Amino acid sequence: MTKKIFADILAMQVIPRINSQLAQQLQLADWHQSLGIITLTIDDVGYTAIDESTKKADVEVVYAKSFYAGAAHASGPLSGEMIGIIAGATPDEIRSALDAIEQKVHYDAYFEEIGEGHAIYAHTVSSCGSYLAQTAGVPVGSALAYLIAPPLEAVVGLDVALKAADVELKVFFGPPSETNFGGGLLSGSQSSCKAAADAFREAIERIAQNPLDAS
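Above: the chain sequence. Below: its structure as tokens.
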């Protein structure tokens, strides 16, 4: 029996028209006139959500970073575990993108708690937007298995997932990440990505039940 762990959105802010000097530092395109900035308590949920926004509004992800050590050691009450910045031509586009982020965070993307404290992310992205497509080096609209777990569990789980389904490891997040996790992005058909995510979850369930089994 797993427990769903949803992220909290800590802050969302809109900059209707970005200062030209800051735009230069962020390496924005000429049409990037407005920004949306968001922080969340779970970074991988945040990355999934900002990717979703690129499918629902005419925006691009221009900045996305995890914070070291995670939300439990955040630098301030609104910092959380990651910051994402999206850019578009108008504030209305940004607000549409932020609405899409809220929907994804509140209803679809979540970590799972397995056993005693094994928090994992075994999420199937049925059709990725421009952000995850660029990250994984796949065409927009591709399916991905987004798999994250604590360090040991991540390595074992990825191996099982890759053997269980017709998928390709496109990105390896070698442990420890900034938040002391690990994992990867796997590409394939939607059904293959779901099978990989299921196998990843099942492998970590086995580890949680018997962590010292070296057979």
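The chain is about 35% helix and 30% strand.
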